[in-house]
Amino acid sequence: MDDVDEPAGRERPLALAPADEAMLARAQTLREIADAALRDVAQPYPADDPGRVLRDALFLQGLAEQLVEQAVVAERERGASWTDIGDAASSSRQAAHERWNTTVGAWVLMERRRTGFIRGPADPAAHARRLDEWYEALVDERRPVSTLLPSLGDEAARAEGDARRAEARQLHGRAEELRKQIDTAYDAALEAIGTVTAEAKREVWAIKHLARAEVYERLAVVEEPVAAEHRRRAATQRNLAQGIVRGHPPESLPADDASREQVYAAYSDLSDEQRSGSKRAVAALLAERLDGITAAGVRKHLDAVVEAYHQGAR
Asked: Could you tell me which residues come within 8 angstroms of residue 230 by beta carbon, excluding any fewer than 6 positions away?
């Protein structure tokens, strides 16, 4: 296993395009699996070392599970939908999302690049070269890994990927800044209830939510693997803004409770007939519209959402 990072003090090389970073990380894991499997084929197991055979098998199983997660990330980077991934895994779209959405989110949180720690050098050219050399020694094929990474020789593609990472960092910072401004605007709107400035304070509050919606809409463009989540957050912010403007904001819903905001936004979009169903039926209907939130998760928030909605409607 390569466990070398780039030398300290040296400027970090540009990452590959995100899809190529994902494929390079996958190639590294495949190497580790192959090395471990080849080692285990001829591994002597002394009688005084009970459990060693199982430990080696479990190590390989862990690598295989890591490979599956990396494959999901690579598929998302290649544009596969959650329906595509569910089909490949012989499961539903929702089951695939629930199983691997956290993995994809963690990849995005790492700015869609290998960390360079443990898994090989952060310099993608050096990493790909080492994998090429390893594979060539086994199979005698020239540059098998490098040829599958188009951005390795495309400086413009790498620069574009890095620019998107920088923009995403800036946008996430802006979203957090707006969250704090929303909290301040919320307090100001509450204090102004019953005064001549109440409408103006509500308008400011609503504008902050709309500004946050615009941030999430742009994040959906620059962080494609989690675009659906960003679009749902944008829709939630717009729905909250509309409620504020109409004069019945969901005052009982914390601004930072993303799951509850999503349930509230989806509940607001239901027809009166759909809202009149049983709690279980309404929860199931909402779960169909919300990726990553099960019917049980919806029911956890539903009482507070229904109360907040009808308080606002009065």
From this structure: 216, 217, 219, 220, 223
pLDDT tens digit sequence for 85-117: 999 999 998 899 889 989 999 999 999 998 754
- On whether the CB atoms of residues 72 and 27 are closer than 8 A, the answer is no
Position 11 scores a pLDDT of 67
Token pair in block for residue 216: 């999430």
18 vs 299, more confident: 18
Q: Which residues 6+ apart lie within 8 Å of 178 measured at CB?
A: 208, 211, 212, 215
